[in-house]
Amino acid sequence: MIADLVADTVEQSSALSRDEAVQAMSAAESVGRMLIAAGHLHQYPITLVAGKVHCEITTVSGTEALTLEENLNPVPGAAGADDFTIHLPSPAPLKEQVKAAVDGHARLSDAVPLAPEAKAATFGSLIDREALRRAVTQR
Predict the structure, then answer these.
(1) What's the pTM value of the predicted model, to 2 decimals?
(2) CB neighbours of 128 closer than 8 A, spacing ≥ 6?
């Protein structure tokens, strides 16, 4: 289900390939099963970053899994994306297995992704407020 969600979201972009997302998720499949089985995805999400998408994917188990209503629709915002990365959590007991998966595909990463707010602060504002002020005062 996680692989389908990622692939369906990436597929929204005309610049990206659903097949590449499927291949990346296939490279992460074995460690993904370990992360789920050990309960790591309860606390540490898999994060898809694609254009405006910053989607954190977690899992639940036990009785909570029986009552939870999941939304498996593609995440909006990837239509304009020209790049994507799937960030895998790397908890201590599985660091080596996650590293091996990440080495298996260029779209996988074991780095913690920047939060959307931090990413915006890093790249600065898209509006040049000083230029806008000058243009208004020159009228």
Answers:
(1) 0.81
(2) none
